[in-house]
Hints:
By secondary structure, the protein is an all-beta fold. The protein has 2 domains: 1-20 and 65-109, no CATH class; 21-62, no CATH class. The protein has no helices and 8 strands. The strands form 3 sheets. The chain has a 4-stranded antiparallel β-sheet with strand order 2-1-7-8, with no helix packed on it.
Amino acid sequence: MIDAATNISAELDGERIEHVRRIRSEVFAFVLPEENLFDAPCKSLGNVPAGVYSPAVDDGFYVSLRPLKPGSHTLRFHAENSASGPESTQDVTYTLTVVHASVSEHREH
């Protein structure tokens, strides 16, 4: 499905990001705790149990962001696909909140 993606774009705070890259991972394993991010979307399947899951891969479009100033930022991704069945559009907007933190603030005394 990802091979047929078209009209791929990304923008940060309303400005187009020029370098959207497709990245394919090597095969890897990952560990999930008992309460994990797949529990809610997979609710109809039941609990996704804790464990090591392998093989796993990732194949997607990514951007590299410059360091952002503290405050609120909007990151938007858009892609379309009509070659692998019914036409679909993905248009996702993230609100990022960047806060200033220094290493010394988080060390125990």
